[in-house]
Specification:
Oligomer: single chain
Helix content: 10-25%
Largest sheet: 2 strands, antiparallel
Radius of gyration: 67 Å
Shape: rod-shaped
Number of helices: 3
Length: 193
């Protein structure tokens, strides 16, 4: 006698999706904008003016105007001296009766040349020293923005947090059901006597 037993196991498939929590956060921020202070500085460099004209003029180095003025004064003085000498000579000749040798005295005086000697020294005048300029002007630029204090604007950005929750899931599916199959496979009967 033959018996055949055949079994099929039950199969269940399980698929799971894990739950998730996502979080994004931004920290609080303080943004500062600063306008740097601006100071406009205008400077004029000092200049030293040195006038050495008096020193050079004492040595004879003069400009054209002063040279002409000096020479014209010198010529005027000599012309006046000549006129005075001629007038004196005329007055002396008018009195010729008193002194007989007046013409000899005039000739003798005019024949001798007299030279003027002077002592030349280094210039005694000092140069004139003056200065101009040497100024510094400060001009700070004003801050006209109402929100600015000491040139700084502050903006506060609060913290921000975002949550995203994905729930977990479980999927079940019956792949195959369990079964038992019993068959009789024999075709003969055994008899014992």
């Amino acid at each position: 006698m033959g018996l055949s037993i055949q079994t099929t196991p039950a199969k269940i498939s399980i698929e799971t999706v894990n739950c998730k929590i996502e979080r994004k956060s931004e920290m609080a921020r303080l943004e500062l904008k600063q306008k740097p202070p601006v100071v406009n500085i205008k400077t004029e460099l000092p200049r030293v003016l040195i006038d050495q004209y008096e020193c050079f003029a004492e040595e004879g180095l003069k400009n054209n105007y002063d040279l002409l003025k000096e020479q014209s004064g010198y010529a005027y003085r000599h012309v006046m001296e000549y006129i005075a000498r001629v007038a004196q000579d005329g007055d002396a000749m008018a009195k010729i009766g008193r002194k007989a040798n007046i013409m000899i005295d005039i000739a003798q005086r005019n024949s001798v040349t007299t030279h003027e000697f002077g002592m030349v020294t280094m210039p005694m005048a000092r140069p004139k020293i003056d200065y101009v300029g040497g100024t510094v002007e400060f001009d700070p630029e004003p801050i006209n923005d109402i929100g600015m204090r000491n040139g700084v604007i502050g903006t506060y950005i609060p913290p921000h947090t975002e949550f995203n929750y994905t729930p977990g899931k479980v999927y079940t599916k019956m792949e195959s059901y369990g079964s038992i199959e019993i068959k009789y496979t024999g075709n003969n009967v055994d008899n014992y006597i």
